[in-house]
Amino acid sequence: MAQEAERMFEKNRFDIRFVGEMIWMRTHLLIAILLLGAPAAALAAGQPPLFASEEQAKQACPNDIVVWLNTKSGIYHYKGQPWYATTTVGAYVCKAEADQAGDIPGDLPLPGQQ
Q: Residue 81's domain spans which residues?
C-alpha cells in the first residue's frame, strides 16, 4: 500500500512538473509571438492605408481630402504645398485616416488660405 501511494505521489509530482514546464514554454512562446508581431501590429494600427497613386486614394475616400504622407516623419502635406508628393518616402492617404493614426499636418499654410 505504501509503495502504491509513493508511486502515485511520484506520478503526480511528474505531472505537475510537466504541466509547469508546458505553461512556461507556452508563456515564452506567446511572448515571442507578441514581440515579433508587435512591429507589424503597431504599424497596422498606427498608419493609415497607403496608396501608390492619388487616384487610388480618391477612390478609397471620395468624401475626404487626399494628402501626401511622409511615412518616415508622420507629417502630411496638402496638394499645392511644396512637399506634396515630393518626399523620398511617402504615399497618398485619406486625411481623416491620417489624423486618426496620429499623423500631423505640415507647418505650411493650406493652399488658398495664405
A: 54-105
CA 15/CA 30 separation, integer angstroms: 22
Residue 87 lies in a domain: yes
Look at residue 61 and tell me if it is in a domain.
yes
Question: One digit per residue, pLDDT tens: the chain, 114 residues?
Answer: 777 767 776 766 666 776 667 676 676 665 655 555 544 443 445 789 999 999 999 999 999 999 999 998 899 999 988 899 999 999 999 999 998 888 888 865 555 554
Q: Answer yes or no: are the C-beta atoms of 57 and 92 closer than 8 Å.
A: yes
Number of domains, the chain: 2
The reply to whether 39 and 14 lie within a common domain is: yes
The DSSP letter of residue 51 is B
